[in-house]
């Protein structure tokens, strides 16, 4: 699509163009944020901010089935938002790193602004 509007400030236009990542990166970022668009996944991440937990505990916190929790945890694992480790017969989940908490906290702060 060709823009038919004249450029008012060439320097600003060039700066903005240079600030936009390449198409592959844009799609990857877009897909990343879609993960946060599911309320159950977001609740799992928020719960794991407070403590690492096994699936059973997450199910009780969120009042969801083990199947639902496992499905969402698999998506979160695949996207490197949570990690897990075996403790005896249980699998314990935690946030993958501090960046996950930072993303959630930044969103909360933004929404609290007036």
Sum this structure up briefly.
The protein has 114 residues and is α+β, with helices and mostly antiparallel strands. It is built from six helices and three strands, in the order αααβααββα.
Structure, described:
This protein is of the alpha+beta class and 114 residues long. A 3-stranded antiparallel beta sheet has the order 1-3-2. A hairpin with a 2-residue loop joins strand 2 and strand 3. The longest helix has 15 residues. It is elongated and about 65 Å long. It starts with 9 loop residues before the first helix and ends with a helix. The model has no long low-confidence stretch (mean pLDDT 94).
Strand content: 5-15%
If strands are numbered along the chain, what order do they take across the biggest sheet?
1-3-2
Number of strands: 3
Q: Which descriptor suits the 3D outline?
A: elongated
Considering DSSP H and I runs of 4 or more, what fraction of the residues is helical? 55-70%
Detail the poorly predicted runs.
none
Rg estimate, integer Å: 19 Å
């Amino acid at each position: 699509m060709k823009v038919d509007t004249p450029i008012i400030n060439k320097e600003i236009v060039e700066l903005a163009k240079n600030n936009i990542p390449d198409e592959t990166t844009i799609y990857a970022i877009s897909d990343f944020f879609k993960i946060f668009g599911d309320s159950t996944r977001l609740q799992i991440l928020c719960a794991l901010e407070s403590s690492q937990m096994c699936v059973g505990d997450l199910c009780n916190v969120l009042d969801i089935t083990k199947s639902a929790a496992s499905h969402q945890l698999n998506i979160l694992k695949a996207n490197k938002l949570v990690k897990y480790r075996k403790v005896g017969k249980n699998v314990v989940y935690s946030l993958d790193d501090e960046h996950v908490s930072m993303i959630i906290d930044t969103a909360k702060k933004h929404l609290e602004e007036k």
